[in-house]
Specification:
Elements (H helix, E strand, L loop, with lengths): L4 E9 L2 E6 L2 E7 L1 H11 L4 E5 L11 H10 L4 E4 L5 H9 L4 E4 L1 H5 L2 H10 L4 E11 L24 E6 L4 E6 H11 L3 E6 L11 H10 L4 E4 L5 H9 L4 E4 L1 H4 L5 H10 L7
Parallel strand pairs: 1-4, 1-12, 4-5, 5-6, 6-7, 7-10, 10-11, 11-12
Antiparallel strand pairs: 1-2, 2-3, 7-8, 8-9
Length: 273
């Protein structure tokens, strides 16, 4: 089994790392370059840098901040936000990004996924999906909290999630599972799957969502949204995720990446030392 990855996320707004709940109520979490250096030294496997207002504000990503982060870290760096063209991707790669994450532009023009993958390689293209629950047979228990995701109530796997764009501001009417399948078919190398319902709550990942997507496609999935303790990352891996993305638990010093890896290793999850 391939090693599972631990990925801190830098949500950046106006040049500062921020963290919110359900994509709103943002609060400052520090300087992105300094945070990137800490995570690199602390054992992170990768970093995700998301300029969360670039698409909404119809502007390009803050390239100088990306470049400074890339100069300070020696682990893979995925960058997203405001990417609309092949030239945007080329520019980000030139500024030090290893992979590019696309969301809004991909929904608006699905062929952009295929064009990007052909030009730069599938391994370079991450399809970000912001998912919001729109139907559940058990609406009160829409986020599974069982310790073993293999026992998820089968009814929860019939949940329906909708794709949102523009940093979680715009519903699209697109089914998340079908969009993930199409993205994989068009050449995306990985899916960054964020539960808008779980984001920032620290109650745990949406395991039904994670399991539904990982069961439907054969490319890696990064689970995102809701990590509040080490158990939650373990659950995400049991639900089929190849990587677990987290922000709050790392930004505010609640857990060290090395401690999380020690915990996961003790649980039988293969991780990089």
């Amino acid at each position: 089994m391939l090693a599972k990855r631990i990925i801190p996320c830098l949500d950046v707004n106006n040049g500062r790392v921020v963290k919110g709940i359900n994509f709103v109520d943002l609060r400052d979490a520090g300087d992105p370059v300094e945070q990137a250096k800490i995570y690199d030294a602390g054992g992170a496997d990768e970093l995700v840098f998301l300029d969360i207002t670039a698409s909404h504000q119809e502007r390009k990503i803050i390239l100088n901040v990306v470049r400074k982060c890339a100069e300070e870290v020696f682990i893979p760096l995925t960058v997203g936000g405001g990417i609309k063209t092949l030239s945007d991707i080329e520019e980000l790669l030139r500024h030090g990004a290893d992979r590019c994450s696309i969301n809004t532009s991909a929904v608006q023009n699905p062929n952009f996924i295929e064009e990007s993958a052909k030009r730069f390689g599938s391994q370079c293209i991450v399809l970000a999906i912001d998912a919001k629950l729109v139907h559940s047979p058990q609406p009160i228990v829409h986020r599974e909290r069982q310790k073993d995701p293999s026992t998820i109530d089968h009814r929860l796997l019939t949940n329906k999630w909708e794709v949102y764009t523009y940093g979680g501001r715009k519903p699209t009417g697109i089914d998340v599972i079908e969009w993930a399948k199409r993205g994989a078919d068009l050449g995306a190398g990985e899916i960054l799957l964020t539960s808008m319902d779980a984001d920032g709550t620290k109650d745990g990942y949406d395991l039904a969502l994670t399991k539904a997507v990982t069961s439907a496609i054969n490319i890696p999935v990064i689970a995102s949204g809701g990590a509040g303790e080490m158990l939650h990352l373990y659950q995400a891996f049991l639900a089929g995720a190849d990587a677990a993305l987290a922000a709050s638990i790392f930004h505010y010093g609640e857990y060290k990446i090395a401690d999380v890896k020690d915990y996961l290793r003790a649980k039988g999850i293969p991780v990089r030392i």
